[in-house]
Design a protein that fits this description.
With about 240 residues, the chain is an alpha/beta fold. The chain contains 11 helices and 7 strands.
């Protein structure tokens, strides 16, 4: 809601990729250079292997007034700055899927020529899509393992929660809705209280109660170690992809 659709110009090779933009009231084109001519803030949302060709195409049109934001996984600020004119204001952004429901977790890093103004602009625009934090570039691959891929870990956990309830006799649809609300409420408490999750977990446990018995089973299944390992391997894979 911060930018009117008429102020947005989207470019893609095929009409199929532009339909959603048109439905939202945005202008569309098949010419990347047209975007550069009409816009100052330019988002590059291509597959990583496609990006070098796009940068080569737009390079002649990039000027000192442009702010270029890349969403391409694994493409470093150093690479972006090398493929664009010297002095270009470049930022690197990594969102996650829940941005589509304004509950995303995003991090960004700025290149050497992007100043506080560009960082503030990007953070202000993206705050309507969820949490947005500026970080050192080295954190971006960790964010991929934690949050980009982490959404899938949460879905797996939600599915398991619901299936446990189905096993005990609750209808599947109801179990899924309650599982989702449970995750939403727990996450909201973490964000709003600022408490460490261990403290909040302890608050739920009563001596000899249901929760501590259930947590014992999760510990026997090495839930924490398994999730930590998942974040580690996803982060390492993101780093490896950046080298490819």
């Amino acid at each position: 809601g911060k930018v009117p659709p008429s102020s947005i110009l989207a470019s893609a090779p095929s009409d199929k990729n532009l339909d959603a933009w048109r439905e939202s009231g945005c202008r569309t084109t098949h010419c990347n250079l047209e975007v550069l001519q009409e816009s100052t803030l330019v988002f590059l949302a291509t597959k990583p292997h496609v990006l070098p060709g796009v940068l080569q195409e737009i390079r002649p049109a990039v000027g000192p007034h442009h702010v270029v934001v890349s969403l391409a996984a694994g493409v470093t600020l150093q690479t972006l700055q090398r493929l664009l004119p010297a002095g270009t204001k470049v930022l690197r952004l990594m969102p996650n899927l829940p941005c589509v429901v304004q509950a995303g977790a995003m991090v960004f890093a700025r290149g050497g020529d992007a100043g506080d103004g560009e960082a503030t602009l990007l953070k202000s625009l993206l705050s309507s899509c969820g949490l947005c934090e500026e970080v050192p570039e080295s954190y971006i691959n960790i964010h991929t393992g934690l949050s980009g891929s982490g959404v899938a870990y949460v879905y797996l956990f939600a599915e398991a929660l619901a299936e446990g309830a189905v096993k005990m006799g609750m209808p599947g649809g109801l179990a899924s809705r309650i599982a989702a609300q449970t995750l939403l409420g727990a996450a909201k408490m973490m964000l709003e209280t600022g408490e460490h999750p261990a403290k909040l977990r302890g608050d739920v446990c009563t001596p000899g109660g249901t929760t501590i018995h259930a947590l014992h089973q999760l510990e026997k299944g090495a839930l924490r170690a398994t999730v930590m390992n998942a974040v580690e391997v996803a982060t390492q894979r993101a780093r490896d992809m950046a080298k490819d």
